Amino acid sequence: MEGAMMKNLLTFLILLCLSAMLRSQSSYLLHHMPWVPQSMHSNPAVRPEFKGYVGFPALSGLYFEYNHGLALDDVFQKDGDSLLFDPGFMISNLKEHNRLDLALDEELFSFGFSLRNDIFLHFSATEKFRTRFAYPRNLLEFLWKGNGAFLGEERDLSGLGIEALSYSELAAGVSFPFGRDLVFGGRLKYLAGRAYASAEANAFSIYTDPQDYSIRVSSGMESYSAGADILIGDEFDANLEPPVFGSANMGLAVDLAACWALDSLITVSAGLTDLGYIRWETHARRHYVKEGSYEFSGLELGDMFGDTDGAFDEQLQDIADTLEQIFDLQEENGAFTRMMRPGMFVSGEYRLGSKTIAGGLIRAEMFNSALQPSASLSLHHRLGKVMSVSANYTYKNHAFSNIGAGVVFKFGPVQLYMLSDNILGPMVPGQLRMVNFQLGLNFRFGKYQPVVAAEESPAEAVPATPVVEP
Q1: What is the pTM of this model?
Q2: How many domains does the chain have?
């Protein structure tokens, strides 16, 4: 009976989580598009192929991403015309460590212009929202099968964590040449936090003794919140009053990159992103449970029947008191500093003619003390003077089935771009593990002519970045 109740509870929690997920950075394609101004957000060392630009207010850069290593076909099984939910089947399709990502960006304004000596300055203001949930397969497996399936095993259930933050970003960037073949770039970002919440189980394991079936639980937990007045205790309360921009929760971050033209056909780049922090002060609060261990040897069920002296109730109360003493939830008020998620990238581009380039990109990001890698291959081609098309193949979050496409239109100074790293996902919803899109509207002015190249003969000139643009 207890095992059946546990399975029913787990089934309910999983369905609840999935429904919440489905209600709900930049495209990998954009990294290799120096003819789109927002490519400088992905690679600060890109030298754009125009003299200046102005982004359409609030519409120059919209980005959304949902990413989860689990698809619907990994959760439901077909039975004729019906779909059956089997938690055991779903758990078998999980990786050892799993995560769910959700991101939303809105660029409020942006502009940039060239200076003498090939220097390009650019500025932007963006509202950003990020959330990430990490969970181990061992946790769901233990809840589904029960402790009887793991007698004599220490089940490591750590790796459970969640982080969500919302903040504003004011950025100023520059790219400049160094000699004939190198371009350096960077972005200094002033950050204003709006709301933050995180929780992490830093030590969580369960052991069942094969002799007497006693259970030993070891655990510790830590959580932070700021920007919203969140109280956790006998009652839960949340007062969502995020601070106005510039009032508190300030931080700084920097992006750094370099681009090297090996010859007239091959260009390589490398960089670091989001090296920085936010100092959270408004309603800043920390909750934590110190690492502890509790051994449960069972209950005297005989006391439950005909219990006139309240012996069984005393057993339950003793267990509750012991748990409260060992896993005592503590609270601290005070400002704290949280580092941004640092990232890195290495990329390369190869010219396949005057109208086509091929690109490769490897990214990595730190979360929950683990490195999260991803990779992409892309192809970009110009069709006439008003249109360019792109396609890519991306691996991210254990998913290999991401095929993307993008299109850029240019009518005079007006540029419209629409990109997605997974266009097949919505067409095959059962295999959907990642969906993202990015679109925007810019006004571009002038055509960039490298000063270094203009001073050399055409045979000697080496472009800092490939040119495939309307």
Answers
A1: 0.78
A2: 1
